[in-house]
Design a protein that fits this description.
Blueprint (H helix, E strand, L loop, with lengths): L5 H6 L7 E6 L5 E9 L3 H4 L1 E6 L2 E6 L16 E4 L2 E5 L3 H10 L4 H4 L15 E9 L2 E12 L2 E12 L6 E6 L16 E4 L4 H11 L5 E10 L5 E7 L3
């Protein structure tokens, strides 16, 4: 698979929607997780990321202007023991609760489908990072409608072992802007990861569409100590 740059992928797409990036830092010392949200409506844009324990959650920036919290307020990132979960919806909680009962990542998502936001039927994208013995592996999932058919759900899971330094995989909800929005197609894209936490976060943020970007979360997790550093960037301040 050809390795791409996030600059090319983001700058060339005005509306990738919500996106997950998981991989290993260029120096090989850290696992890297990034999650961003974008919005076209006032309701979607009226959000920020805030810390919530070891994870994060979305929150209304101006509560009085929040018209429908059902698909926009959730916990994108949660930590369960040696696992970090990142998703674009409340399936974070489903994965957390099911894996806490010893179910697998894939099994935990069997009870979920794409979002009920006709006519887009936004895919549910999810990632899980599992740490062990100074290393890690990860998996990514997308649940999407079958070419816009709300009666049929297509389920794809991609697993990655022994990640390579400076490489990550990028999965997002939409191929671009449109009405209805075209769902992501294919397997997660192989992209490069460069720099430390702040430089990588700045790089991703500056290449997201200025009008549509809302919030970004990036975490670097030290593979030797398990300690992490996180960065949150919110457009609303």
């Amino acid at each position: 698979m050809e390795k791409l740059t996030l600059k090319e992928e983001l700058a060339g797409n005005s509306y990738p929607g919500r996106g997950i990036v998981i991989g290993k830092s260029a120096d090989g010392g850290s696992a890297v997780i990034a999650y961003f949200i974008m919005g076209r409506s006032e309701n979607s844009r009226n959000r920020i990321f805030v810390e919530d324990g070891q994870g994060i959650r979305t929150q209304a920036f101006e509560p009085s202007k929040m018209t429908d919290p059902s698909l926009v307020i959730y916990a994108p990132v949660r930590v369960l023991g040696n696992k970090t979960i990142v998703t674009n919806g409340d399936q974070t909680d489903t994965i957390y609760e099911c894996m806490d009962r010893q179910q697998t990542f894939e099994q935990s998502l069997r009870s979920r489908t794409f979002e009920p936001d006709a006519p887009n039927y936004t895919p549910r994208i999810s990632g899980i990072v599992h740490f062990n013995d100074g290393g890690f592996n990860y998996a990514m999932s997308i649940l999407k409608s079958n070419n816009g058919n709300p009666d049929s759900c297509s389920r794809f899971t991609f697993a990655y072992e022994n990640p390579v330094a400076g490489e990550a995989h990028f999965l997002h909800t939409y191929m671009g802007d449109g009405n209805p929005l075209p769902s992501f197609s294919g397997e997660p894209k192989l992209v490069s990861v460069d720099g430390d936490l702040k430089s990588f976060a700045g790089y991703v943020w500056e290449n997201l569409n200025e009008e549509n970007k809302v919030s970004l979360f990036v975490r670097y997790i030290d593979l030797n100590t398990g300690k992490f550093e996180s960065c949150i960037i919110n457009k609303n301040k």
